[in-house]
Amino acid sequence: ILSNNGKVNQIDFAERLVHWINKGFPELGDLKGHGCGATIRGVALNPKFKTDPTAVANEKWEESGRNAASNGAVMRTSIVGVAYYKKLSDVITNTKKFCKITHADPRCIASCVAVTVAISSLLKDFKGDIK
Fold first, then answer.
1. Which residues have a Cβ under 8 Å from the Cβ of 114 and sit 6 or more positions away?
2. Considering only CA atoms, which of 93, 61, 65 is closest in space to residue 77?
3. What is the mean pLDDT of residues 8-35?
4. Computed over its alpha carbons, how large is the radius of gyration of the chain?
5. Are the C-beta atoms of residues 80 and 100 closer than 8 Å to each other?
6. Ranges of H-type helices in 5-127
7. Could you tell me the sign of the dihedral formed by the alpha carbons of 43, 46, 51, 52, in that order?
8. For the range 12-20, what are the long-range contacts, defined as Cβ-Cβ under 8 Å and sequence gap of 24 or more?
9. How high is the pLDDT of residue 83?
10. Fewest beta carbons within 10 Å, which of 27, 79, 104, 106?
């Protein structure tokens, strides 16, 4: 979001995700990305992922019999509730776009939106220091 003027660029993120899976964060000593679930890995390693990530995510979901409701996208999208938190419509739009890059299941999308809206709402209502 920050690299793309507040908008989700699904192709840019797909490229970054594949790079992370393959290399991790070398500056932290990683040799590859750690903690990548089967759904994300299965989608991201598809040869078409870098050009049409949402289509690949949809294919993966269809192949599962529309039953793959893993929640790896929740971890990735939670930061969307922080960036531009004052405009809820942007939070929701950006969250859906980020989630759909790897998770097409509507239950995954709904859970991602629930988390980012909660984070955004907490930040809007925050009135003081955490003690």
1. none
2. 93
3. 91
4. 15
5. no
6. 10-23, 38-44, 53-63, 72-77, 88-100, 106-125
7. negative
8. 13/53, 13/98, 13/101, 14/44, 14/49, 14/50, 14/53, 14/101, 15/50, 17/44, 17/101, 17/102, 18/44, 18/45, 18/49, 18/50
9. 85
10. 27
Give residue for tokens 């929701």.
92
Which tokens sit at 75? 């971890």
Query: Which two tokens mark 3?
Result: 């690299």
Query: 53 near 104, Cβ under 8 Å?
Result: no
With contact defined as beta carbons under 8 Å apart, do 23 and 33 qualify? yes
| pLDDT tens-digit readout, 85-131 | 889 999 999 999 999 999 999 999 999 999 999 999 999 877 666 55
What is the model's pTM? 0.86
Q: Rounded distance, CA 63 to CA 114, Å?
A: 26
